[in-house]
Design brief:
Length: 285
Amino acid sequence: MTGFGRGVAEHAGVRATVDLRSVNHRFLDLKLRAQIAPSLEDQLATKIRGSVERGSISVAVNIVRPPTASGVRIDEAAAQRAHAALRSLATTLGVAPPDLALVLAQPGVVASSDAPEDPEAVDAAILGALDQALGQLQAMRAAEGRALERELLARLDELAKLRAGIEQQAAGIAEQLHQKLSDRLARLIGDAAVDPARLAQEVALLAERADITEELVRLDSHLEQARTIAKGAAASGRKLDFLVQEIGRELNTIGSKSQRTEITAAIVEAKSVLEKMREQVQNVE
């Protein structure tokens, strides 16, 4: 399912913006674009997986840090030690004593006074922005889900009508087979007598092979289950994927047993409807 969400949060002067983009995918594919600590990356992934089950999710994080007051700090003790060492060396070498610039240039005498960044502030800002982004993303996906529900229920209604028509066409299959076999025998043997018992036995065998009662019962069950799942609030994409496959299997079996052109035509139409449904199910959470 597709969707977009943006969240902005600020904590202790750190401002974070999180953008989430979702497109259709059979599974959950998480793509994170951010320079953040691995522990925070794990927290983001866990939060997203807790809210989204299917889709290709792109996560972009932008952090704006507060300006820092740059300055320096002089370590007087270190400066005194450096000056004493340099002065002793200058006396030994017979050169001029060290000046202030030379003392300040020694390692450890001058240090930056910038305050270190607070990692907890960064984490809190990013996680807060993520919560907002997830809320917006879920709202968009929910709206798409309602539209998909209406579409899937309409397709299921079409399939249910086609199933009812197939059942009606198959109701008199034994009588049709009896008449068809009798006509064929009449053309082959003319007025010769036909053993009614043998004819009935052959008709029974043909009727058993062409019987689609079990397939129609299973098809009805699959359609009802799909309808219930489509109306439900829980994530149902994978369940609907499975049911679409099962519905297709029953349609194929009915088509292979079909003895009537009307049933064959209904199967072709049902497969067309099912293919449209299959495409939509790929978008369901």
